[in-house]
Design a protein that fits this description.
- The chain is built from two helices and six strands, in the order H-H-E-E-E-E-E-E.
- It is of the alpha+beta class.
- It has two domains: 84 residues, GrpE nucleotide exchange factor, coiled-coil domain (Hemagglutinin Ectodomain, Chain B), CATH 3.90.20; 59 residues, Roll (Nucleotide Exchange Factor Grpe, Chain A, domain 2).
- It has a three-stranded antiparallel beta sheet with strand order 1-4-5. A three-stranded mixed beta sheet has the order 2-6-3, with no helix packed on it.
- The mean pLDDT is 84.
Length: 162
């Protein structure tokens, strides 16, 4: 039967009835909704994977600092003050380095109070210009452009006249 040819005839396009069009659109809409749900689930899985990877890297950088802290604690237990102090300095340097590599920067607290990056704990009468930062109680930090923790500061207030 290989010599047999099948004749294909061109058919006139059949017009769909209104109900068929609605059914086709409904089917298409359901498929699009299912595709979108699958996309949202895939995006959530990808986001979770990125967060896990980022956390894994950060934890990998923090573990040596934990080791340094353990060594400092051993030195403290043996009352070796010089080694303890050097150990704490080493841990501080290491942690500051990890945070810097991750894009964390200290917030500058010199100058005028800025409510976007400072948190005023109290105001104190002072000769300094009103609204200037007198003291930093706790340093603040940024991650890129975002404030992770505002600097907690004491702000200058005018001296009250009797």
């Amino acid at each position: 039967m290989p010599d047999e040819q099948v004749e294909v005839s061109e058919q006139e396009p059949v017009e769909e009835s209104g109900d068929d069009k609605v059914a086709a659109l409904e089917d298409r809409l359901l498929r699009l909704a299912a595709d979108f749900e699958n996309y949202k689930k895939r995006a959530a899985r990808d986001r979770e994977a990125y967060v896990t990877l980022a956390n894994e890297r950060l934890i990998g950088e923090l573990l040596p600092i934990l080791d340094d802290l353990e060594r400092a604690l051993v030195a403290a237990a043996e009352h070796e003050e010089a080694q303890l102090e050097e150990g704490v300095r080493l841990v501080h340097r290491s942690l500051a380095g990890v945070l810097e590599r991750q894009g964390v920067k200290a917030i500058d607290a010199d100058g005028k109070f800025d409510p976007h990056v400072h948190e005023a704990l109290l105001s104190q009468p002072s000769e300094a210009e009103e609204g200037s930062v007198l003291d930093v109680v706790q340093k603040g930090y940024r991650l890129g452009d975002r404030v992770v923790r505002p600097a907690r500061v004491v702000v200058a207030a005018p001296i009250e006249q009797p």
